[in-house]
Amino acid sequence: MAGLAVNVDHVATLREARKSNYPDPVAAAILAELAGADGIVVHLREDRRHIQDRDLRILRKIVQTKLILEMASNNEMVGIALDVQPDVVTLVPEKREELTTEGGLDLISYKDAIAETVGTLQDSGISVSIFIDPDPDQIKVAHQINATMVEIHTGIFCDAQTTKKRERAFSDIVDAVKIAHKLRLGINAGHGLCYNTIKIFKGLHEIDEFSIGHSIVSRAVLVGMEKAVKEMLILIKNL
Q1: Is the pTM of this model over 0.85?
Q2: SS3 per-residue string spanning 139-187
Q3: Residue 198: is its pLDDT beyond 60?
Q4: pLDDT per residue as tens digits for the range 25-64
């Protein structure tokens, strides 16, 4: 059975909308773990639009499962990761003007720079995942630079507006997963997944973990974090 890593960024988004001290993403992370989540994900962005340094440092102290830090590959973030020591770093592209991460890292164009970051983090004992599009060439580069795992970007599939586009996008994901598995990379998947789109992954057992945030936090606003996480866990169990 694949695991579930819960991203609590958007709890912080709600907090930062009023520049208040609540709701607290740390409290949300505790509830997600109590509900059975296998990991907690936060993205510390350059502009600190949601998760703050304080959140990351407290989470490092209290997370009992696995703390996954999404971050850009730059000197500031590498320094923070080396200091905080998350269990996993997921390297992601980052643009100030985007609402959320829009696609995977281009490893072909930035291979040497990303390889250096991967090596630095792994030398410190931190496992490294790379968020990439479901592109065989990108996955092969991830393997070449010794990434521990890849996270397959599922956003194109989740956002597809027609059946044809959705089927093509999912076919690309399946192909990417098979190639990554053949190369013995750890395989995660995430971005845009919800209580409906997760169901199509039934039978794709090579995926080790799903990273899901927005849909769980949105449901939690109405039914509570523990129930929202448990409902997603049931869906994943049935895959």
Answers
A1: yes
A2: HHHHHHCCCCEEEEECHHHHHCCCHHHHHHHHHHHHHHHHHHHHCCCEE
A3: yes
A4: 999 999 999 999 999 999 999 999 999 999 999 999 999 9
**Cα–Cα distance measured from residue 226 to residue 42, given in angstroms and rounded to the nearest whole number:** 18
Annotated catalytic residues are 43, 70, 191
Assess contact for 7 and 42: CB atoms under 8 A: yes
**In this structure, which amino acid lies at residue 232?**
M
Domain ranges of the chain: 3-237
pLDDT band at 144 (very low <50, low <70, confident <90, very high): very high
3-state secondary structure labels for all residues of the chain? CCEEEEECHHHHHHHHHCCCCCCCHHHHHHHHHHCCCCEEEEECCCCCCCCCHHHHHHHHHHCCCCEEEEECCCHHHHHHHHHHCCCEEEECCCCCCCCCCCCCCCCCCCHHHHHHHHHHHHHCCCEEEEEECCCHHHHHHHHHCCCCEEEEECHHHHHCCCHHHHHHHHHHHHHHHHHHHHCCCEEEEECCCCCCHHHHHCCCCCCCEEEECHHHHHHHHHHCHHHHHHHHHHHHHCC
At 120, list the tokens. Answer: 């630095």
Distance CA 229, CA 33 (A): 9
Q: What's the token pair of residue 173?
A: 């994901």
pLDDT of residue 94: 80
> Class for domain 3-237, per CATH?
alpha beta
